[in-house]
């Protein structure tokens, strides 16, 4: 229950190496938390991703918080250190497509929240329709987030 991002990423890389995956430690300045910080995370060769390294698709796995694979947008140049050769991660329900759906739904949720703040609450029909829309989007997010806890 202790260690920094690099410690946890090294452990995760070794675990995935033992499972036969091609893994890398990706490190450098990352700003996906709205602040720039030096960080390390795991990159695994994968079948589908918007991220590339040496003409290969890579999926990022955050080892310090339970995000979905490729959930956080990485928009920095990172240094890659290869840990192991091996097979590609093949997307399942927690792959990059699911992460994109989650990101999109969370943005939509924020937009609906702002709309709710602007609606005069005396306009009950409009307000209730927005609340129902909000609840449906929130339910979709929770289904994705908590699937791993079933």
Structural class given helices, strands, pairing? alpha+beta
Question: Biggest sheet, open or closed, and with what strands and sense?
Answer: 5 strands, antiparallel
How many individual β-strands?
5
Q: Tell me the Rg in angstroms.
A: 19 Å
Succession of helices and strands: HEEEEEHH
Strand fraction equals 15-25%
- Termini separation comes to 24 Å
Order of strands across the main sheet = 3-4-2-1-5
Poorly predicted runs are none
Please write out the topology:
Elements lengths: L4 H14 L4 E8 L6 E9 L6 E2 L2 E6 L17 E6 L11 H23 L5 H22 L5
Antiparallel strand pairs: 1-2, 1-5, 2-4, 3-4
Helix pairs in contact: 2-3
Protein architecture, described:
The protein is an alpha+beta fold and 150 residues long. It has two domains: 5-84, no CATH class; 96-149. The protein is 39% helix and 21% strand. The protein has helices at 5-18, 96-118, 124-145; strands spanning 23-30, 37-45, 52-53, 56-61, 79-84. It has a five-stranded antiparallel β-sheet. Helix 2 packs antiparallel against helix 3. The longest helix has 23 residues, at 96-118. It is elongated and about 60 Å long.
């Amino acid at each position: 229950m202790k260690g920094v991002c690099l410690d946890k990423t090294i452990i995760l890389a070794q675990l995935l190496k033992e499972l036969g995956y091609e893994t890398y430690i990706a490190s450098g300045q990352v700003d996906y938390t709205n602040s720039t910080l030096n960080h390390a995370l795991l990159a695994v060769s994968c079948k589908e991703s918007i991220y590339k390294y040496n003409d290969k698709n890579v999926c990022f796995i955050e080892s310090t918080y339970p995000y979905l694979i490729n959930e956080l947008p990485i928009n920095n140049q990172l240094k890659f250190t290869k840990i192991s050769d091996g097979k590609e991660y093949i997307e399942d329900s927690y792959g990059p497509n699911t992460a994109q759906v989650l990101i999109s739904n969370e943005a939509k949720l924020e937009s609906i929240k702002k709309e709710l703040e602007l609606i005069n609450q005396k306009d009950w029909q409009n307000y209730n329709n927005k609340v129902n829309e909000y609840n449906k989007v929130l339910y979709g997010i929770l289904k994705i987030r908590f699937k791993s806890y079933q």
